[in-house]
Amino acid sequence: MTKLKTVADLEKLHSELAGKKDPRRRAIAVCAVPGCGAYGSEKVPPALREELKKRGLEDKVEVLATGCQGFCEKGPIMVIRPEDILYISVKPEDAAEIIDETIIHGRVVERLLYKDPATGQKVVHENEIPFYKYQTRNIFGPNARIDPNSIEDYIAIGGYSALAKALTKMTPEQVIDEVKRSGLRGRGGAGFSCGQKWQFARQAVSPDGVKYVIVNGDEGDPGAYMDRSLLEGNPHSVIEGLMIGAYAIGACEGYLYVRTEYPLAIKRLHIALAQAEEYGLLGTNILGTGFNFTVRIFRGAGAFVCGEETALLASLESRVGEPRGKPPFPAQSGLWGKPTNINNVKTWANIAPIIQNGAEWFNSIGTKTSKGTMIFSLVGKINNSGLVEVPMGITLRKMIYDIGGGIPKGKRFKAVQMGGPSGGCVPESLLDLPIDYDQLTAAGAMMGSGGMIVMDETTCMVDIAKYFLNFLKDESCGKCTPCRVGVTQMHAILADICEGRGTMEDLDTLTELADVVKNASLCLLGGTAPNPVLTTMRYFKDEYVAHIRDKKCPAHVCKKLITYKVDAEKCTGCGACLKACPSQAVSGEKKRSHAIDPAKCIRCGACHDACKFNAVEML
Amino acid sequence: MTTVKFTINGQPVEGEKGETVLDVALKYNIDLPTLCYHKALLPYGACRLCVVELVAGGRGRLVAACTHPAEEGLSVLTDSETVKRNRKVVMELIMTQCAGSPEILEMAKKLGVDRTRFRSFKTDPEDRCILCGLCVRMCAERMGQSAIGFSDRGYKRKVKPPFDTQSEVCQTCGACSFVCPTKTIKLEQFTKNKTKPILSEFDMGLRSRPAVYISYPQAVPNKPVIDKKNCVRLLKGDCGVCKEVCKAGAIDYDQKEITEELDVGSIILSPGFETFAPQLREEYGFGIFPNVVTSLQFERMLSSSGPFKGEVKRPSDGKHPKRIAWLQCVGSRDEPSGRSYCSAVCCTYATKEAIIAKEHAPGTDAHIFFIDMRTYGKGFEEYRTRAEKEYGVVYHRCRVPNIEEDPKTQDLIMNYRDETGSTKRERFDLVVLSVGMQTPDDLKALAKKLGVDLNEFGFAATPALEPMTTSREGIFVAGALQSPKDIPDTVSQGLGAAAKATEGISSERGTLAAVESFPPEKDVNAEEPRIGVFVCHCGTNIAGVVDVKEVARYIRTRHDLGVVFADTGLYTCSADHLKHMKEIIDERQLNRVVVASCTPRTHEPLFQNTLKESGINQHLFELASVREHVSWVHRSDPKKATEKAKHMVLMAVEKVRRAEAVHKEPAKVTHSALIIGGGLAGLTVAAELSSQGFETHLVEQEAELGGNVRNIFHLLSGEDPQKYLKNLISKVMSDPKVQVHLTARVRDVEGFIGNFRARIENKRGELQEVAVGAIVVATGAKELVPTGYFGFGTDPRIITQLQLDRVLHEGNLDAKTVVMIQCVGSREDTGRTYCSRVCCSEAVKNAIEVKKKRPDANVFVLYRDLRTYGLNEQHYKRARELGVQFIRYENEDKPVASVVDGRLRVEVNDHNLATRFILRPDLLVLSAATIPSGTNLELAQILKVPQTEHGFFMEAHAKIAPLSFTAEGIYMCGTAHSPRFMDETITQALGAAQKAVEVLSKETVSLEGIPVYIDADRCTGCGYCEAVCPTKAIKINAHTGKAEVTEVLCKGCGACAAACPSGVPSPRGFTKDQIFTMVDAALEEL
Fold first, then answer.
1. What is the pLDDT of residues B1027-1081, one digit of tens each?
2. pLDDT, average across residues B96-119
3. How close does chain A come to B276, measured CA to CA in Å?
């Protein structure tokens, strides 16, 4: 490996590597990161290689253990190129058949194909299945085409050429201008203009000239793993973006702040940094342009609040991860008091494509105020859960029904919780809402870092609000009163309502408290914490009222508000419920109708599940 | 520094870059509630109470004022509806955290929150931590320790030392608990190291104090000092918080002691006293049993600024004690501890403490255990009687051998023998040790350095009849350094020492004096009244009863009366607050001031001076006495007391609104004095005034100078009083500055301070008018002729002590057995209820003389309490050593004297031994009372000065003005004041001379009274006013037929105004208009 001393060196290396990577060449890309790994995907590539070796094909066919390809619902995912045949739920045992059938004989293994639940038809090609069809995988796409442990793979697909372009053909101001014009907004949640933020950091004066750029990889929303997937699947894309940003604001040092819970991401970043250093893409006088840059990895200890940038800085400085008031913004006084620019992983990953393809390219995607694509983690009561990259402005309906494949088991859609734990619940009536920053905010939710939790009719909205508030009360850093005490109190009120102790005044108190917590909290954790309460109260007030006034949980979730009753007509007296009941609440003689003693019933639902005649009713 | 301009509540403000919104708001006195903010710590922004609204583009958002930087163009609202609503809810949330901390509830009240709707999830009911982090940050940022920090997050967050163990790095500085707003932090729980609170010296160790402290609230100067033995900054270089918070930038850690050299003509030593260290009397358990305290500690408990804010509480558990015992003579009359003298003051102070304890908490049982009850001072015996009869203080004549403690209750148990000889075991909640006085330890070194001798008891050695003179010329002594003494005697001696110190250097008088100058007076008569009202807490003296804040709040609303400012102050009379008052007068352009505080007698001049310093006429001031007239008398009904205080302040406002500036011409001073009485006191005054360069007229009604001392031939100290007197008389007689008027009487006195005219009548009945600037009353007293007591007058062998003194002097003693009876005509149940002070020592003196003359003589002294107070105790001891027998009798069981078979017979019950004695004396000596001079009444009328019920003269203030009359320019000394010894008389005489010098040394005096104003147009010249004027200040002008006022004579008493049928004379400051509006104000519905 020789150091790349000039841009020409890089271009030369690129053409060499690109040549080897003939797109028409046969390759098998297997997703080998934790999502699919949970189904044993890491054993698939070795099995494939073994089979290829047996057949002497090891040099002819490339086996890629890639990062996440998104369709986690059906993992492990395998794509066979050049045809882009998609196999789902692949197991190591399938290796021989795949090699024999598809690689050698060009035949599709039917049983590994995806079956469209709508049509019942099997689909062969990746871009034909609805999950992928409606996506625009600008940022995520390359995950499937590279080995994340190989910088050469990245360079082969044009990696680091955006950096080279910025360093040699653009002034820092031009880079900032390009990013500004692209309309890229921060993908971490708040959606602030990225270029604007860079400009502040560039303009900020540092007495000793030191400035920092930081990758915020403290992805803490439950169920969200977009950042992890990018770091695991394409670490260089993030590093390259970071370097362009450093050049733009005048920083020579960067930090990758990644939570310790992401060991694979950290491992891959270490490898990526070492490789970039070996090529001279990190260090001094990069590509002979005089630009110097070094990056360190900092492992965060996993506090949700450390995703807030001032808390992240405190953590980076080895202090307790607590936010502080802004201003001063990190752009003025950040890490160790120096001007600092912090962006989310996804934001950084967008930079190289913008520089490479130009602001106009990026600008052409999305809505008036929200440009580009956004990566969502589509989870919950949905058929096709996984990571989804779509252009801004796509409607929720499209997301849920076309890409997501709708609600399982024919249940009715109720709401989608957007933007992480402190996001909001968007109801069915807003299904045609185009997803962008401003529309979501108007609806009481937020973009957040892209969490989408789909809920069906069996979800109790009061319970769900309580659930998120519970998470937030545990994750509040505890520094400021409204967040520490206010969220705890809101949670307590919700718990009261769920357990039948609520009063109608509680709703007013909740509203007032939510308003204060939102307005008076120190940081956005508290500032957004009331969102689950506010949106569920806004869109599902009737459920609250049912809990309070009727002492009923319409979704039959809140145990204290459920009554189990045996329908004497339907009951055959089989005794299944009696046997299932752990608290001896069911009584009745054989072949006679049974009854449930509500005083003894612990509302576990075992009788209901045990009854084959639907005789146990939930009221 | 870059200036940034923005607005707060629409008001343009300026701050500096780097400041926060809160910094700027504070500078502009915009009040913002804060909890986690501390000036010496970095902004934190956690409590969110200081949220303010930033308005931009028509939309507001909330930020914490303590962290948000002051930026150009901000528009800040500190009190908008949004702010208020959010703040209230935040406060409600905080209230769930602090378990009803009174400090937080007080803040909450201010924000209009009286309860929280939310519940507490705290498991420890004692946990009042609101997680403001002040402690954590103080420890880390200022002390460099980080001995505590936060653990966990969210609602589980707690303040703990690392690893939740006791911290080893904690330096026990206590900054964490000091800064804690809810007083939650208990240092002992956090630290592995031993905590050592700095005990407040002033509060006698009953509470702790910080390392920067003001010794006591009224200290002069009222400035804090840094205790370098405990200051973390001076010891270790950390902290420095005081410097940060000091707005005046007054903290200087590098300050060094400086030595100043002064050239002085005389030196007065008055270092005061220390109390006996009661640990030395181990049997009383002081320092081991928490509920055994000293009398000075108890004094602090009684004080409203004391450790328990005026409540009497047991140190062990803070409970109010129900039974309190005082043990007398701890470290006094105490041979084993080397203190055989009597401390002179303890009997009276214990009585006082017992009375006040009962006043504080009616129903308290107060018991005083004593040997002899020595309440010998003026009015003290009557005071003690009241304590017993009216207050129910129980007196036990016995010395308690020891104190035990009940370890469970920490109650104290005393075993003692009562007067009947039976053993008692009693339980008390609190025991007060009446500790004696001693000279400060470090005084010995100082005395040595100064070349001043101390006597065997450690007090300054002074010649018997020169009690201020030390062994070194030019160095004088005053107060308890000379001998144990109480306040009035100390004040007298202080004045006396001042006289002695001035005497040798009087030619230099005034050469170093600086003239007090005031700014030119503003003419505010034409202005609309702008009244400022200052309501004083007086510690808790007023605020403990009256809701002073409410009074200020109410009067602040009376803009209709011209009130433009009203606020409260902890001690309005403190130097600090007076400065603040001046600032407010300037800032608010006040032209009239009302202070609602204690007493105008001592404090009105102080506040008037402050007005003068601000260029406001002193008569545009009014004092509402809400302590004397409200809090002290309506202690039991705070609500009504507050209402009354409002009315009183309202009345004062109405009055001052109508007040006018008054200007008075000062009067010239005649530089000579009149001394009435040519005894020891008068002679001493004359000699002293002469040596200070002033002429005097000495008027003696008898043909000879010397008074009573002519009958005294022995002194306990051994000096010859006759020799002393002879010297003094000859000195005075030969002094050209003293005009002696013998066989003369003062017939008439007119005028006022600095300008008296007295007419002296000589033996031929001729009247001589003399002009004097001051008058000293030294009419003396005499021994009662005890006719009717114990057969006096019926048998030549029954004589008085003075007669015995003469017998001994003349060598005619022909008696082997001498019986003396004390309290003859003194301490009676009715009539002469007072103690004659000197008789016990006189008896001891004569007993010793008898024993000296006839060692085989049997001398019996029959007494009630033997009152050889102070250092005279040594002579009592000597008498006993010489074999004098002391037999105690009870007032109800007096000795009976008779003549049986031609021999004297005295029958007495000895109450100490419970034995009946029959004595056959050859001489029965009666210690007869000292009674005032018979001419006192006439003189009192001439001088218009008051007398006591017993015919002595009544001083202006028993404690702080013992030698003055309420009438200015007239003073008293010697036995005219009350019975006393020669040395005490000399002390008072010198003191009274010094009071006279104060007047005589001035060129002019300004007069107290405000002259009446005569509306000449309406005067009919009827002359009623002239007839009633007590100072002859008002006269009908023969030419105009109208009344005219001689302003210097007018005292402003208002008699003329009352007498005038047409209401012409108007006493300024008490005009009809003022009085009527005050009456209206008093009756106004509030």
1. 998 877 899 998 998 999 988 778 888 899 999 998 899 888 888 899 999 999 9
2. 92
3. 53
Name the minimum distance, in Å, from the CA of A530 to any CA of chain B. Answer: 15
**Contacts of residue B47 in chain A, CB cutoff 8 Å?**
480-481
Q: Which residues of A touch B160 (CB under 8 A)?
A: none
Q: In chain A, which residues have their Cβ closer than 8 Å to the Cβ of B86?
A: 515-516, 519-520
Question: What distance, in Å, lies between the first and last C-alpha atoms of chain A?
Answer: 71
Assess A433–B contact: CB distance below 8 Å, yes or no.
no
Could you report the per-residue pLDDT of A201-250, keeping only the tens digit for each?
A: 999 999 999 999 999 999 988 888 999 999 999 999 999 999 999 999 99
pLDDT of residue B659: 92
Find the mean pLDDT for residues B323-342.
93
Contact yes or no for A492 and B119 at CB 8 A: yes
A chain contacts of residue B68, beta-carbon cutoff 8 Å: 325, 327
Residues 6+ apart with CB under 8 A from B550: B642, B646
Nearest by CB to residue B153, choosing from A476, A513, A515, is A476
Chain B residues whose CB is inside 8 A of the A320 CB are 149-150
Mean pLDDT of A309-322: 94
Give per-residue pLDDT as tens, B625-660.
Answer: 999 999 989 988 999 999 999 999 999 999 999 998
Nearest to A513 among B89, B153, B156 (CB): B89
Is B146 in the A-facing interface, judged by CB distances under 8 Å?
Answer: no
**Geometric angle at alpha carbon A199, from A193 and A201, rounded to 5°:** 110
Q: What is the pLDDT of residues B898-927, one digit of tens each?
A: 999 999 999 999 998 889 999 999 999 999
Cβ separation A325–B152 shorter than 8 A? no
Q: Do B153 and A509 touch (CB under 8 A)?
A: no
Q: Would you tell me which residues 251-270 of chain A have a C-beta closer than 8 angstroms to some C-beta of chain B? A: none
DSSP, res B686: H
Contact A516 B121 (CB under 8 A): no
A404-412, long-range: CB < 8 A, 24+ apart: A404/A131, A404/A378, A404/A454, A405/A117, A405/A118, A405/A130, A405/A131, A406/A117, A406/A382, A407/A381, A407/A382, A407/A383, A407/A454, A407/A456, A408/A381, A408/A382, A408/A383, A408/A456, A411/A381, A411/A456, A411/A457, A411/A458, A412/A456, A412/A457
pLDDT band at B1 (very low <50, low <70, confident <90, very high): low
The two counts, helices (H) then strands (E), for chain A are: 26, 20
Which residues are registered as beta bridge partners of A515? none
Give the range with max mean pLDDT: A563-567, B251-255, B600-604, B988-992: B988-992
Reported ipTM: the value is 0.93
- The pLDDT, as a whole number, for residue B420 is 81
Could you tell me the domains of chain A? Answer: 24-130 (3.40.30.10), 159-362 (3.40.50.11540), 373-456 (3.10.20.600), 461-548 (1.20.1440.230), 563-618 (3.30.70.20)
Q: Please tell me whether the overall predicted TM-score, pTM, comes out greater than 0.90 for this model.
A: no
